């Protein structure tokens, strides 16, 4: 995988995220420091730029929601650490908002190029707006790429993160336009017996289109329940309850 990354200057869904060590606004970090947590790694084209500033503020405001999903945020650009610090301080002075997550100073562009964050057809010095969702095992699970002039939708990143987690723990999939607390899709049957089971399930529950497309309510939350209560609302195990 390392050879493939080195040759192609990119990473793909399902690959292990290449580890790195870097200077950030919170000190030195390694990607492996985040094992055991989900991570949203995102690049921005440059400090003191208008769209990036709105994104930093939006990520900061949503940080609590990401943490509730066992997820950390990590920004990166090829600007210097001193530039990052000055930018963060300017945002704080003008808005009162502190940026609660680190930003990597990738001055050499080594990390950005390894992850395919620099599109030479757009700019050879600025990172485009990449987003990588990395799971607790260090595997890249989702990649989003936005152009320089289009800001990211933080709600969509949260939605996609939640969808990945809900699909994983419930061993299912999420349909188009899925949002939290909506039904998920059952796995497609692979045997005649399972096919018959799904047809019977549709007859009883009226919750499907055909044997290959059936729905159910998720039975497990993203966060564990304690004292019969969840830190976030649980999904009902019983249909309709």
Describe this structure in words.
The protein has two domains: 2-165, Glutaredoxin (3-Layer(aba) Sandwich), CATH 3.40.30.10; 175-241, no CATH class. It is 32% helix and 19% strand. The protein is built from six helices and ten strands. The chain has a five-stranded mixed sheet with strand order 5-4-3-6-7, covered by helices on one side. Strands 8-10-9 form a three-stranded antiparallel sheet, with helices on one face. It has a two-stranded antiparallel sheet with strand order 1-2. The radius of gyration is 21 Å and the shape is elongated.
Topology:
Blueprint: H1 2-8, E1 21-24, E2 27-30, E3 38-43, H2 50-68, E4 71-77, H3 81-95, E5 103-105, H4 110-114, E6 129-134, E7 140-146, H5 154-170, E8 184-185, H6 192-205, E9 208-210, E10 213-216
Parallel strand pairs: 3-4, 4-5
Antiparallel strand pairs: 1-2, 3-6, 6-7, 8-10, 9-10
CATH superfamily of the largest domain: Glutaredoxin
Alpha carbon gyration radius: 21 Å
Indicate the low-confidence ranges by residue numbers: 1-8, 224-241
In sequence order, what are the helices and strands, one letter per element?
HEEEHEHEHEEHEHEE
Beta-strand percentage? 15-25%
Tell me briefly what this model is.
With 241 residues, the protein is an alpha+beta fold. 32% of the residues lie in helices and 19% in strands. It is elongated, with a radius of gyration of 21 Å.
Brief descriptors of the model:
alpha+beta; elongated; Glutaredoxin; 241 residues; disordered C terminus; 32% helix; disordered N terminus; 19% strand; three-stranded antiparallel sheet; 6 helices; 2 domains; single chain; five-stranded mixed sheet
């Amino acid at each position: 995988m390392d050879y493939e990354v080195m040759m192609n200057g990119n990473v793909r869904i399902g690959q292990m995220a290449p580890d790195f060590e870097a200077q950030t606004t919170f000190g030195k970090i390694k990607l492996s420091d985040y094992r055991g947590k989900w991570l949203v790694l995102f690049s921005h084209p440059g400090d003191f730029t208008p769209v990036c500033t709105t994104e930093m503020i939006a990520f900061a405001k949503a940080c609590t929601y990401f943490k509730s999903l066992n997820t950390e945020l990590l920004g990166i650009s090829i600007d210097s650490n001193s530039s990052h610090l000055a930018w963060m301080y300017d945002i704080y002075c003008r808005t009162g908002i502190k940026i609660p997550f680190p930003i990597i100073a990738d001055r050499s562009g080594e990390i950005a190029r390894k992850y395919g964050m620099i599109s030479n057809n757009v700019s050879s010095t600025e990172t485009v707006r990449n987003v990588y969702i990395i799971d607790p095992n260090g595997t890249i699970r989702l990649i989003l790429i936005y152009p320089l002039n289009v800001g990211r939708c933080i709600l969509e990143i949260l939605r996609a993160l939640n969808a990945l987690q809900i699909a994983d723990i419930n061993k299912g999939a999420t349909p188009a336009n899925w949002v939290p607390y909506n039904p998920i899709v059952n796995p497609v049957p692979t045997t005649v017996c399972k096919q018959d089971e799904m047809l019977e399930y549709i007859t009883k529950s009226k919750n499907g289109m055909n044997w290959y497309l059936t729905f159910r309510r998720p039975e497990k939350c993203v966060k564990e329940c304690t004292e019969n209560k969840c830190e976030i609302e649980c999904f009902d195990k019983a249909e309709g309850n």
